[in-house]
Amino acid sequence: MKREKSGSSQTDGRTTKLSFLSAEPRVVCYYTNWSVYRPGTARFNPQNINPYLCTHLVYAFGGFTKDNTFKPFDKYQDIEKGGYAKFTGLKTYNKNLKTMLAIGGWNEGSSRFSPMVASRDRRKEFVRNAIKFLRQNHFDGLDLDWEYPAFRDGGKPKDRENYAKLVRELREEFERESEKTGKPRLLLTMAVPAGIEYIQKGFDIETLNKYLDWMNLLSYDYHSAFEPAVNHHAPLYPLEEPNEYSVDNELNIVRNHEMVTIGVGCCHICNSR
């Protein structure tokens, strides 16, 4: 059964009603646009996606420019070869399917995000361009994937506070745009790292919990190919229990467990040592 929660938020003298849908099973699947370049039978494109396996599909990744306009990371595949269109076109088979665009990823880190969220004017432009880009390309929502606020090259201590401001402003404008146009509100989600220090220093979970539809916990990549020994990168019951600890910590912080989607790494990491 679908339950609706409601609340309100006020910014610049305007009050925006916020609605949240919850208590329905949620299976969120990420599609990486570089998988089309895999050799042989490993090649994977949007036509290979079963539109009935997931409730929400996320196209990874898009980016944005210094003037805060959204851009495809691979214009040839995403636009010219119809990657976006084929991906969102899966909804013709499954009317209940939602397709979203992830902005960010490892290559679009703090050096890009931090200056943008620090400026009120840039955030405003980012929000406006987000709505325009998502609607033009027939996406149902935005998944924020900043890796990672307050960390990596360009990260600032104020990223935590400023990132929360961006999320609030995105959500409020998504609500207003929906009320104005009569279209379903754009979804707003976020990828959250499993590392406890990353969460504490970069994510104002209490505030984010008010404005996001849910959070996607990156509970994988605990180990990499750069380590001297092979280990499980997405363990269920590892010896040190970092996975279980990450999930428990996230649930304790968020409190509303319906807000957390646990990530499962459906990939492998090669180590030839």
CATH architecture: Alpha-Beta Barrel
Query: How many helices?
Result: 8
Secondary-structure class: alpha/beta
Count of separate structural domains: 1
Report the top-level CATH class. Alpha Beta
Q: Could you give the order of the helices and strands?
A: EEEEEHHEHHEHEHHEHE
For the record, what is the CATH homologous superfamily label?
Glycosidases
Integer average pLDDT: 85
- What's the gyration radius in Å? 18 Å
Instruction: Find the count of extended strands (DSSP E, 2+ residues).
Output: 10
Largest sheet: 8 strands, mixed
Strand content: 15-25%
Shape type: globular
Q: Predict the CATH topology.
A: TIM Barrel
Q: Can you tell me the residue ranges where pLDDT is under 50 for at least 5 consecutive residues?
A: 1-6, 11-17
- The end-to-end span amounts to 51 Å
Give the proportion of residues in helices: 25-40%
3D structure, described in words:
- The chain is built from eight helices and ten strands.
- The chain is an alpha/beta fold.
- Strand 1 (3-11) and strand 2 form a beta hairpin.
- Helix 4 (120-136) crosses helix 5 (159-181).
- The longest helix is centred in the middle third of the chain and has 23 residues, at 159-181.
- The protein is globular and about 45 Å long.
- Mean pLDDT is 85; it is low at 1-6 and 11-17.
